[in-house]
């Protein structure tokens, strides 16, 4: 059977990993076909992830700041929320970026084929369009960038519209009176921030002993303290065992200390994680190994067990983050173009865009302890930062961890306003091999929140004199 289309490179999936790989490969002279099941390219991140959530979080931030401003002597009154306009702002941001991406694909002559792709052999993918028509694409190389999907707990009544996953929640169907967020990780807590600012009463239930289990406890504490007073309940060490739809609401059963046996909510958001799509693309027909969970293992050049087939992004493993996917996409494209590229990033930063934000990179203290790494720590509370006080953002802290033997930076965590922006300096310092003295001798502009990295390093060094 002759293929309908033949190309040097097929990229399966157009998320941040896929489109970055496609664009980079095209820039390096490759003929590229990008397969995407949905009409818009950009994947989860652009359409139902990073970008729409950040548009809504900005709305939430403005509402929160306006409320908090009353204590500075300026009262704005109760917000008058037009949900249609809030949704429109979010869609407008997403729309601008998807149109931009299509333009960038066109400029590079990256051919977008819409439909669901499955391998039929080690050199062919069959794409089924929405109308059922099929075409076969033959490739010399392939990059699998098919991402991940929401993990669905089996006992949850998903057919009830009051039960939402993150994609449903981003649609802002309404502002419920009482909402349960199942999962106290980044996605659950970001959506809780949005719905709370818009007026919902929030209860969070988390299976682990603490919110955002991957981060150090002291970095999560400012967030926990802040939301403890604002949310109706936060149940830790607790699981939801059943959700029963009734006319009055969703009756949720809990198992855990401190939680009631049942409680009734108007809506439930389930945000317990994401599952990779490696089991849904007939990878086996190409000889590509995917594990039982759907992850596709790769080497440090993003190569699968089949040498001409690569994989990137959420489908290759944790952390499931857009900036990891884009970086991996570039590596895969460059390797295919004959460059000696490798994935050797020293760290991939994590950020929760909550109120306050929580960001961390490199080793956590928990990891250092578990791995027996001797470290020096410097922590600077934002209550001692003039800029933080001026911005009413004193509920933050900056922490740096240095290798005890070499003095090199090995980790950092920041909680507070704009922590997600501030952590980038620590990432650069780690990549450059900076040590305690590099960080404490670097003159930072005053008064800024970025100074807190400088001060925390001085604390570790024993030279900190700054409280202002
Ligand atoms: P994806 O973005 O998952 O894209 C895969 C694409 O492949 C999709 O478009 C899918 O339709 C397509 N596809 C899959 N299978 C097929 C097939 N067989 N045929 C054709 N097309 C197919 N990350 C951050 O770094 N920062 C954030 O702030 C952030 N916020 C998030 C908020 C939410 C609510 C969610 C859900 C996620 C968030 N993430 C965030 C995670 C981020 O979205 C993912 O890590 C990122 O999108 C992964 O990129 P990817 O390229 O691996 O795949």
Give an overview of the whole structure.
Strands 1, 2, 3, 4, 5, 6 and 17 form a 7-stranded mixed sheet that branches. The protein has a 5-stranded parallel sheet with strand order 8-15-9-10-11. The relative contact order is 0.12. Helix 1 packs parallel to helix 8 (322-336). It has helices at 16-27, 43-48, 50-68, 83-107, 166-170, 186-197, 217-228, 322-336, 365-371, 386-390, 419-431, 436-441, 451-461, and strands spanning 5-12, 32-36, 111-114, 116-121, 124-128, 134-144, 148-150, 163-164, 178-182, 201-205, 233-235, 239-245, 250-255, 262-265, 267-270, 274-276, 309-311, 350-352, 357-362, 375-381, 397-403, 409-416. It has 468 residues and is of the alpha/beta class. The mean pLDDT is 97. The protein is built from 13 helices and 22 strands. Bound molecules: flavin-adenine dinucleotide. Residues 12-18, 35-38, 43-45, 49-50, 53, 116-117, 145-148, 166, 187, 277, 281, 313-315, 320-323, 325 line the site of flavin-adenine dinucleotide. Its EC number is 1.8.1.4. Keywords: Disulfide bond, FAD, Flavoprotein, Lipoyl, NAD, Oxidoreductase, Redox-active center. It is an enzyme of class 1 (oxidoreductase). Belongs to the class-I pyridine nucleotide-disulfide oxidoreductase family.
């Amino acid at each position: 059977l002759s293929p309908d289309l033949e190309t040097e490179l097929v990229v399966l999936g157009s998320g941040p990993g896929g489109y970055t790989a496609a664009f980079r490969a095209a820039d390096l002279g490759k003929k590229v076909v990008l397969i995407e099941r949905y009409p818009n390219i950009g994947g989860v991140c652009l359409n139902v992830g990073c970008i729409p959530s950040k548009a809504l979080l900005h709305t939430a931030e403005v509402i929160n700041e306006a409320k908090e401003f009353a204590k500075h002597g300026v009262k704005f009154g109760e917000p008058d929320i037009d949900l249609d306009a809030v949704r429109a702002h979010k869609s407008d941001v997403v729309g601008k970026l998807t149109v931009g991406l299509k333009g960038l694909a066109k400029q590079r002559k990256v051919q977008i084929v819409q439909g669901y792709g499955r391998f039929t052999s080690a050199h062919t993918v069959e794409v089924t369009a929405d109308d059922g028509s099929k075409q076969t694409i033959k490739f010399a190389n392939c990059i699998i960038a098919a991402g991940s999907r929401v993990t669905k707990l089996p006992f949850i009544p998903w057919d009830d519209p009051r039960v939402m996953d993150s994609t449903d929640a981003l649609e802002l169907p309404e502002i419920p009176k009482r909402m349960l967020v199942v999962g106290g990780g980044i996605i659950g807590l970001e959506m809780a921030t949005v719905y709370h600012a818009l007026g919902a009463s929030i209860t969070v239930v988390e299976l682990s002993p603490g919110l955002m289990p991957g981060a150090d406890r002291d970095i999560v504490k400012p967030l926990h303290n802040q939301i403890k007073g604002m949310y109706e309940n936060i149940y830790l060490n607790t699981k939801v065992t059943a959700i029963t739809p009734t006319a009055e609401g969703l009756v949720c059963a809990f198992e855990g200390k401190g939680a009631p046996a049942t409680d009734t909510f108007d809506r439930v958001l389930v945000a317990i994680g994401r599952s990779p799509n490696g089991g849904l693309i007939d990878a086996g027909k190409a000889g590509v190994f995917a594990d039982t969970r759907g992850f596709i293992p790769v080497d440090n050049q993003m190569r699968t067990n089949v040498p001409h087939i690569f994989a990137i992004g959420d489908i290759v493993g944790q952390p499931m983050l857009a900036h990891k996917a884009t970086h991996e996409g570039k590596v895969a494209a460059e390797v295919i173009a004959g460059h000696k590229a490798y994935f050797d990033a020293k760290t991939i930063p994590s950020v929760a865009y909550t109120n306050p934000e929580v960001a961390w990179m490199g080793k956590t203290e928990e990891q250092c302890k578990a791995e027996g790494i001797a470290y020096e720590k410097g922590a600077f509370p934002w209550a001692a930062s003039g800029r933080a006080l001026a911005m009413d953002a004193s509920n933050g802290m900056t922490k740096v961890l240095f290798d005890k033997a070499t003095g090199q930076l090995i980790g950092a965590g920041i909680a507070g306003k704009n922590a997600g922006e501030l952590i980038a300096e620590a990432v650069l310092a780690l990549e450059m091999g900076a040590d305690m003295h590099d960080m404490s001798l670097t003159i930072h502009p005053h008064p800024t929140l970025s100074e807190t990295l400088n001060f925390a390093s001085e604390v570790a060094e024993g030279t900190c004199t700054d409280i202002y």
